[in-house]
């Protein structure tokens, strides 16, 4: 798949087949995240791969907070259904947070695109921010959870959602 096809075929997948993702494939996906640009080459990310019970504990923690935001219970359902959750942590915290968060976004996007290229579906999840403390307890990691990526074989083929035109986003 060429780069244009990867970008144009990337979708946010919310339904997954009950099939595992191999460790080799997960490491390859994360490796391509590492190639992302980062401000001052700080590479402020750490990741933890969650499957099975640990992944489901994250979903359960989200279900417990569903009253905070209408999208949380749907996110929890997606995490339960996806075979893998790659949790992304912030590893710096020395006053360059804005730059570091942009860098982490690039890291996650690279992984998201690599999933598409490898034939996996993925969903970039921000709602894990609601359960940062619970994720620290579940994983035993004291770093700040900033986002996550659900990964698995897709059970759906969604159409591309509408995009703004070039004219709509250009500032004159």
Shape: globular
Oligomer: single chain
Mean pLDDT rating: 96
Q: Helical stretch count?
A: 7
Number of strands: 4
The SSE string, one letter per element, is HHEHHEHEHEH
N-C termini distance:
36 Å
Q: Please list the strands of the largest sheet in the order they lie side by side.
A: 1-2-4-3
Give me the secondary-structure category: alpha+beta
User: Which stretches are poorly predicted, pLDDT < 50 over at least 5 residues?
Assistant: none
What about the largest sheet? 4 strands, antiparallel
Helix content: 40-55%
Radius of gyration (CA) equals 16 Å
Q: Beta-sheet strand percentage?
A: 15-25%
Could you describe the 3D structure shown?
The termini are far apart. The longest helix is centred in the middle third of the chain and has 21 residues, at 97-117. The chain is built from seven helices and four strands. The protein is globular, with a radius of gyration of 16 Å. The protein has helices at 3-9, 23-34, 52-64, 72-81, 97-117, 132-139, 166-169, and strands spanning 45-50, 84-90, 121-125, 144-152. It has a four-stranded antiparallel beta sheet with strand order 1-2-4-3, with helices on both faces. The protein is α+β, with helices and mostly antiparallel strands and 172 residues long.
